[in-house]
Design a protein that fits this description.
The chain is α/β, with parallel strands linked by helices. It contains 10 helices and 9 strands. The strands form 3 sheets. The protein has a 5-stranded parallel beta sheet with strand order 2-1-6-5-7, sandwiched between helices. A two-stranded antiparallel ribbon has the order 3-4. It has a two-stranded antiparallel sheet with strand order 8-9.
Length: 245
């Protein structure tokens, strides 16, 4: 899968995403990450990419022309027959979820557009953006951090990125449950022992324990998610409640 990130600060992208699991996935050729500097496509002789907003107001607005030309350069450089999905990172959008990550991971090419200042000229957004995505209800200085979050989450869903094929299917938010507690050596640390069932060697009992722990953790920490889980597993949860009574 190919990620193309349109940004004013490409060094932020390359420094952060060339490490750890994502960096190794790039080295193995599972994914590619192209940080495209929007400033390289400005027509302004002073390399300006922003200007004052029409109608007045605080701050500056990114101009349409350099953003559009950077986007067109991606299409031409990758020889794409049609425009790929283009995601604009903005707090004025639905909040990013694991399901969105899975959906976007099906794409061969994905363009992520990072805004800055007071935003981007609406006309170019109307021209190129297919998806508006937020990583939370707060405001960041720019879209780079959000783009890196989305890239990391989507890349993990691409086959070959995770060394353990099960990792992506057993972690938090899969099936609307948080991940169960994890333990490693030593068996006793600071007077606290690993739950004995994890030492039993009985994989069926371990799986059942992990599911119950995942449900309990979700009930306590994310009741909103647990409500969704109950709706999608009504028979299982109804039987459990009858046993508890």
């Amino acid at each position: 899968m190919h990620f193309h990130i349109l940004t004013l600060f490409p060094e932020m992208i390359t420094q952060a995403l060339n490490t750890s699991i994502i960096g190794r996935a790039v080295q193995r050729g599972c994914i590619s990450i192209d940080a495209v500097n929007i400033r390289d496509y400005t027509a302004d002789r002073h390399n300006k990419t922003d200007d004052y907003p029409y109608g007045g107001g605080a701050g500056m607005v990114m101009q349409a022309q350099p953003v559009y030309d950077a986007w067109k350069a991606v299409l031409q450089g990758a020889a794409l027959p049609r425009p790929p999905r283009t995601v604009y990172l903005t707090p004025q959008a639905p909040v990013f979820t694991q399901d969105m990550a899975k959906e976007l991971a099906q794409e061969e090419h994905l363009i992520l557009l990072c805004g800055h200042y007071e935003g981007i000229d609406e006309r170019v957004l109307e021209e190129i953006v297919t998806d508006y995505v937020s990583i939370g209800d707060y405001v960041l200085t720019g879209g780079e951090l959000a783009a890196m979050v989305v890239t990391d989450a989507v890349a993990r869903m691409v086959p070959g990125v995770l060394s353990n094929a099960l990792s992506g299917s057993t972690e938090s938010l899969e099936g609307n449950l948080l991940e169960y507690p994890q333990y490693t050596r030593p068996e006793i640390w600071n007077g606290k022992a690993v739950p004995s069932i994890l030492l039993s060697g009985d994989h069926a009992k371990v799986d059942a324990w992990r599911l119950e722990m995942a449900k309990e953790r979700t009930r306590q920490r994310r009741p909103d998610l647990y409500a969704i889980y109950e709706r999608t597993h009504p028979v299982t949860e109804k039987k459990k409640k009858v046993r508890e009574r």
